[in-house]
Specification:
The complex is a heterodimer of chains A (386) and B (106).
Chain A (H helix, E strand, L loop, with lengths): L12 H17 L2 H8 L3 H5 L10 H9 L18 H13 L6 H11 L5 H11 L4 E4 L14 E4 L6 E10 L6 E8 L2 E8 L5 E5 L9 E10 L5 E3 L4 H37 L1 E2 L2 E2 H4 L3 H27 L1 H30 L10 H13 L4 H12 L1
Parallel strand pairs in A: 1-4
Antiparallel strand pairs in A: 2-3, 3-7, 4-5, 5-8, 6-7, 9-10
Helix pairs in contact in A: 1-5, 5-8, 5-10, 6-8, 8-10, 8-11, 8-12, 10-11, 11-12, 11-13
Chain B lengths: L1 H15 L11 H25 L17 H14 L4 H12 L7
Helix pairs in contact in B: 1-2, 2-3, 2-4
Classes of the chains: A alpha+beta (386), B mainly alpha (106).
């Protein structure tokens, strides 16, 4: 197939430098011990009565902001780093590798949507992100799929003074965000709106979720009054922006899964190397090598597709949706397999709270279905290739 | 679509194997090539036979055989490829030992 993509995915020295500096920063500031202490110190606290505490380290986030990581996908003209999608993917992969509780993924995703809209409101939101704000997208259908025809939130009034009402579901890291990018339907079609987290009339109702490394919420809009500056995409323009951003969004989530799965696989291989039972290594009694290698083969496929899709977002937009849906489908299946094998191959200890595997298992479960599961994307691929 | 995704995944993995900064271990992708390709061809021809249904019973020289019985032949021959030059199982041993550093098989 003829392609306009560079052979090396456009992953050059600059991209490598960004990735490596983020990896180093996260290894120093967000290792497994700190993660365990943060979110899994006490099962009662994590899943006890009431809402998930969903703790996160704001200092680590501030460090990422100072490194310019949170504004990686914001164009330079808006004060961001304007990095290629392959660099954004690499950073998301590193966030997944440490199962980072932070609004980073949500903010990268919101930037990718906002930059598809061309308006003073979009510039204001991107500027906010460049200045260090955490932003999350509210634009997912009630079944969790990526939507471009949202109608759960409605916009009324003029473009100078829009008013939002209704309820948005599956909003990621809502309690960490300073602003939301909200898809809402007006008479002329779907628009995108910038809403501050503390806007009067907005209620953030946290979901109780399995994943301990993030939070999720419903946003209830009870006549939230906005001004002209808050219109990121005017009614009718929002769907196109959401659709254009889809490949980038899928790349980010799939990359997170690849990083997390690599941790699951390496941790499992390490356990098989070092665990001794009855004077023999684990593999003496049980077949552990082949399933671990199968994890590796699946990770490699998904990871290659992630970088191909990211490269398509950068250089070959016509192929981006196809490759991104393939990447998300491959990554979702791969993540489920790696989660299951990592716990099973650890044996009894793998099923305990004390073993860190469950943190990744749960993060993967969340990512697998986020913005459409594997079956959904294969379904869409079939229509695309017809 | 699962097979189409694996085909594209293989193509992109070969491409990635030449980008050092996107490969953790230099032998990880090269050593996985044989098992990945032969098992993909096996599963692809099995899928083709499933799509052919009852027509997959027709063999070479049968005038009604779809694609001149290419898929059933490919499927049967695919086992030659997953066995010859180091079975898929031996390939997985090599990957586990050389790339992941796991214990050698007896």
């Amino acid at each position: 197939m003829a392609t306009t993509q560079p052979r090396d995915f456009g992953f050059g020295e600059e991209e490598q430098m960004v990735r490596d500096s983020v990896a180093r920063y996260l290894a120093d500031n967000a290792g497994i011990e700190s993660l365990r202490g943060l979110v899994a110190s006490d099962p009662e606290k994590a899943y006890g009565s009431g809402e998930n505490p969903a703790p996160w380290n704001e200092q680590t986030w501030q460090g990422l902001v100072e490194l310019g990581v949170s504004s990686l996908a914001v164009p330079e003209s808006n004060g961001g780093a304007g990095m290629k999608m392959v660099a954004v993917a690499a950073v998301a992969e590193e966030a997944g590798r440490v199962a980072l509780p932070s609004p980073l993924v949500a903010t990268l995703i919101a930037s990718c949507v906002a930059r598809e809209a061309d308006s003073p409101g979009a510039a204001a939101l991107l500027g906010e992100i460049a200045a260090g704000a955490a932003v999350s997208l509210a634009g997912v259908r009630a079944d969790g799929d990526w939507q471009v025809d949202c109608d759960e939130v409605q916009a009324s009034g003029s473009n100078d003074a829009p008013v939002l009402s209704g309820e948005a579901t599956f909003v990621q890291d809502a309690r960490k965000a300073g602003s939301f990018l909200v898809a809402a339907r007006a008479e002329a079609g779907v628009g995108l709106y910038r809403v501050a987290a503390d806007a009067p009339g907005l209620i953030i109702a946290p979901d109780r979720i399995v994943d301990l490394t993030r939070d999720q919420a419903r946003l209830k809009f009870d006549g939230v009054e906005l001004d002209a500056d808050c219109v990121v995409a005017t009614p009718g323009q929002g769907s196109a922006a959401l659709m254009a951003a889809l490949p980038a969004v899928l790349v980010i989530v799939a990359a997170d899964m690849c990083g997390a799965a690599e941790w699951q696989m390496q941790t499992t291989a390490d356990y098989a190397r070092t665990r001794v039972q009855f004077d023999h290594p684990l593999g003496f009694f049980q077949a552990v090598k082949h399933p671990t290698v199968n994890m590796m083969l699946d990770i490699d496929r998904a990871r290659s597709l992630v970088y191909a899709a990211a490269c398509a977002v950068d250089c070959e937009p016509a192929q981006a949706e196809r490759l991104a849906r393939m990447a998300k489908a491959a990554a979702s299946d791969m993540a489920g397999f790696c989660s299951g094998r990592s716990v099973q191959l650890h044996g009894g200890i793998g099923f305990t709270w004390e073993c860190d595997l469950h943190l990744y298992f749960k993060r993967q479960c969340h990512n697998q279905v986020l913005y459409g599961d594997a079956g959904r994307h294969r379904d869409n691929l079939a229509a695309l290739l017809d | 679509m699962a097979i189409a995704t694996r085909v594209e995944g293989l193509r992109q993995t070969v491409r990635r194997s030449r980008v050092e900064s996107l490969c953790d271990h230099p032998m990880r992708i090269p050593l996985a090539g044989k098992v990945t390709i032969t098992e993909l061809l096996q599963d692809m021809s099995a899928l083709a036979m499933e799509i052919e249904g009852a027509a997959s019973t027709l063999y070479l020289d049968d005038p009604n055989a779809p694609d001149e019985a290419e898929w059933v032949r490919a499927y049967m021959n695919s086992y030659g490829m997953t066995i010859a030059a180091g079975t898929s199982e031996v390939q997985r041993n090599i990957l586990g030992e050389r790339v992941l550093g796991m214990a050698k098989s007896k």
